[in-house]
Amino acid sequence: MAKGIREREFQNLMIQWSIPMDWSFIAGRKLPRETTQTVLATQLRDALVRLNPEVIAGFDVDAVVEEIVATVNAVEGGLVRANEQVLHLLRGHQEFRGADGVWHPLKLIDFENPSANTLVVSDEVAITVPGKTSRRFDLVYWINGLPVVVVEVKSPTAKSGWADAAREINDVYAAEYPWFFTSNVFAVASDGLKLRFGAAGAPTNLWQPFRSTADDEDLAGQADVQRSVELLLNPATVLDMLADFALFDTSGGGVDKKYLPRYPQMEAARLIHERVVAGGSKGLIWHHQGSGKTLLMVFAASLLLADTRTESPTIILLSDRTQLVRQTSGVFTSAMGDAYFHQPATSAELRSLLADDVRGVISTTVHKFADAGKSLSTRGSIIVLVDEAHRTQSARSKSLAGQMRAALPHAKFFGMTGTPVKNLATDTFALFGEESDPGRVLHRYSVSRSLRDGATVPVMLDPHPVAFELDDQALQAEFDQFADDFDLDDPDRETLSRKFGRLTSVFANPERIEAVCQDIVDHYLAGAYRNGLKAQVVAYNREMAVAYTDKLNELLAGFEATQVLAEVGVHEKITAEVNISVSESKDEDPTLRVFALSETEEEEQKRRFLTPNDPLCFLVVTAKLLTGFDAPNEGVLYLDKPLKAHNLFQTITRPNRTWVSPTGFVKTSGVVVDYIGLAEEVQRAVTDPTAEETSKGGGFVTDLTELVAEFRTTFARIEDLLADIEDLDLSVHGYESVRAINSFLDTHPGAAEVFSKDYRLLARLYPLINTDKRITKYQSGFGLFGSVYTTLFKKSSDEDRKERLGELGPMVLEIINAHVHSFAVVAGQEEPLVLDAQGIAVLKELLALVRPKAKNDGEDQAPPSAAEILDHIKAALDKGIEPGSAKYTALAERIKLLRDRIIQNSQDALEFLAEALRVARAIVNAEKHPDETVVVVDNDHIGVLSRIIEDHAPSGLTVTEKNLAEEIDQVVTRTLAQSWDNADARNRGARRATAAVFRRYRIKPVGEPYDSTVAYIEAHYLVD
């Protein structure tokens, strides 16, 4: 790929940062390899001889090298399986047959002494095979001749970012040359300002930063990238990742997966391992909720099992819920086989496993330790990793945790929690924390770090208090009359008053249930549903959960809901289902027994909820699934139950997981809609009691009122900025207003940058608060600002627009269509395309005009996709136009007159545009008579009209007219690029496209400059 100088400079910087870490630089063109080869065979051969001095004499080394190269180049089972097999080989676990017929393991890499390996970093590494497009990797890091890290960089000043670099690795390099990635430990993508690493082929939302919890959280920009390079690409880290932290799930039953650790997981797992090896007995891991504690336990267990110093341990993965590591159990079976992973179904089976000193991993719940007895196993090599360590864990001997500790008196206990508890009943710090650890915490990953790293997203608190009127006197009078009628004495009256005067009675009121459920449906359909997100509803008790489910399903089948479903076009119907605990006790309410779910049924329900296109969109709960249920696609939680402390914190973290939808929507925040009025309680629940954190949980929860206030303040700043524009009415969204603002921004240095910055903030806030009535009066002005912003940046490339809109956060379709009138959205047929507002509208017009291609073999081919249409546009623009004519002098004079025009108002600008169109038409007509060829303007990849405007624009012409001219030329390009049935169809299509462009700019498609535009377009394709 072509390199800009700044990109190459950053590439060289990464090399400079790598050399002090013992990487030797060899330019890609000087590597001892052919461009068809994956492995540096000479370096691999030297390493085999150097690292295996005792046995290598009995081998044909060249034959071994050939066998290794063949293994590296084999990808028949898919990249993940091939990667697992090759890393198994690199770890020294594969045996080779010597000349004497004896099998020996051979060391390919020295993990204990990184400097004993041949460490090379190369730039511009080419790879090619016959029949494939040649590719060139920006940087490749080699260990003993094997490519273990591939880096793709973008310039810090380029329009593309790190995500584009990651997609290039996934969609181009790994897709076309997968065998170059079978020995890959991880891939790196960076734009010089941000760096992310991930498994090649993994979705970009799984690519993570690599930092250190010991560093300043505010480290950013190039300093942050340099620090990441020094940490991640240190040979010791690469080898550590290769040896112990690249885990696989290829056990079957699902998609093959490769797991790489986040840096806090890696740090914490190492600390647990080091403590066990050093003879320690406990430790507390405090990581923000939703940041991956379950996978941390898997990494820690893998480290402990692989180390011979831990004396073949038994690792107990403990939870207070079933199937803790169902989603990652395949990691252990892939690595060790089924015999080393155990999930006891009963307490008796658990006791049997421990009594028999079984080794490996046991995944179980604390409840199965009930009545386990004392000293069930006295081994000291039992390590218990406790998930959600603040729950069911106490020092009381009769508690479940107490019984577990009595059964395993010499075991080591490590607790993972996002909400440690310290009260009279439970002290997580004392139970798991080592006194010598700072604050009794072995490792800490804070809320603010988690948010900054993108490991979790912030949660917005949206209060929806439910008001009701109560006439105390009338109620008391009616109750007294009732008691008198039935001749109730005072004790009976008091009993009834206590029983039915509780909060339950208010929650069970049918009118309240309907009001809350209607609000839930309205809120969900207006926002979360349109982005593919799903929702949980937390009801006061089990009976209310059932009642809410019934009411929600009734409303979801109603006319208003079906209208929204038809508009979005994904489901014909969506539903809610209840998930509550139902006991097998004979005292259980018979009306609730029907809602009991078996383990299989519950897993299937959760699977459907996690499936984006499944119609199950609501899970209604009261206690179950509030903790431990990892649903990244949950965007909103409707809370209608009083909760406190860590229970409240656990609940409101449900929507804080990161997620990218199949259509490319990036979840940037979660929402908790609060019907109880828990704002103060929430702030207490999320308060982080460490000195460096804020009193409001490090930015984890934001009250919607704060967002509304920030929106108003930002809007007011823009109003103040534009205050000097005469007669500007922000409620009028039309060409005059857009042009007036553009003219002001053009003539005031720095104003456009200030405007753009504030508008982007508004755009990030708007999707979060668009249903709030307090911002209704701002919607017209916000739409106007959106048109101005779009016009300002219309000339940005598609990549720039993708990056910018990614920063802004996606807008709901209803918001775009209803309020920001210059925007329209259409989905691509093959892949999501992210354009700016006018680009999307143009694309929509194109899709409406394009007909299916000609029949082939008797079958209709599908219409071209959005991506194909854009490719046609780019190809046509790249082709260029070279008009020429003997009439050049006359045309040049007309252009000179254009330059001398004085533009004082928008009408002058439109007249200038009309005249420019007439000149452009004359140029196009002139090129049809090339008896004397004189180049009028240079071929700079834009149309004739755009070039005239660009080169000869008078003062006073704003970016609005320039962008309108560019769109007119795009209509020309699209018209020329398409095959039409006849001239009439072509003319109608061109006129429709032209009219659509004019309407977007709030200009009537009649008179001038519309007539000149049509004439100019016709001049391009009419044949004399």
Automatic annotation (TrEMBL):
<dbReference type="Pfam" id="PF18766">
    <property type="entry name" value="SWI2_SNF2"/>
</dbReference>
<dbReference type="Pfam" id="PF22679">
    <property type="entry name" value="T1R_D3-like"/>
</dbReference>
<dbReference type="InterPro" id="IPR007409">
    <property type="entry name" value="Restrct_endonuc_type1_HsdR_N"/>
</dbReference>
<keyword id="KW-0680">Restriction system</keyword>
<dbReference type="InterPro" id="IPR014001">
    <property type="entry name" value="Helicase_ATP-bd"/>
</dbReference>
<keyword id="KW-0378">Hydrolase</keyword>
<dbReference type="InterPro" id="IPR040980">
    <property type="entry name" value="SWI2_SNF2"/>
</dbReference>
<comment type="subunit">
    <text>The type I restriction/modification system is composed of three polypeptides R, M and S.</text>
</comment>
<keyword id="KW-0255">Endonuclease</keyword>
<dbReference type="InterPro" id="IPR055180">
    <property type="entry name" value="HsdR_RecA-like_helicase_dom_2"/>
</dbReference>
<dbReference type="InterPro" id="IPR051268">
    <property type="entry name" value="Type-I_R_enzyme_R_subunit"/>
</dbReference>
<comment type="similarity">
    <text>Belongs to the HsdR family.</text>
</comment>
<comment type="function">
    <text>Subunit R is required for both nuclease and ATPase activities, but not for modification.</text>
</comment>
<dbReference type="Pfam" id="PF04313">
    <property type="entry name" value="HSDR_N"/>
</dbReference>
<feature type="domain" description="Helicase ATP-binding">
    <location>
        <begin position="274"/>
        <end position="438"/>
    </location>
</feature>
<dbReference type="GO" id="GO:0009035">
    <property type="term" value="F:type I site-specific deoxyribonuclease activity"/>
</dbReference>
<protein>
    <recommendedName>
        <fullName>Type I restriction enzyme endonuclease subunit</fullName>
        <ecNumber>3.1.21.3</ecNumber>
    </recommendedName>
</protein>
<keyword id="KW-0547">Nucleotide-binding</keyword>
<keyword id="KW-0067">ATP-binding</keyword>
<dbReference type="InterPro" id="IPR004473">
    <property type="entry name" value="Restrct_endonuc_typeI_HsdR"/>
</dbReference>
<keyword id="KW-0238">DNA-binding</keyword>
<keyword id="KW-0540">Nuclease</keyword>
<dbReference type="InterPro" id="IPR027417">
    <property type="entry name" value="P-loop_NTPase"/>
</dbReference>
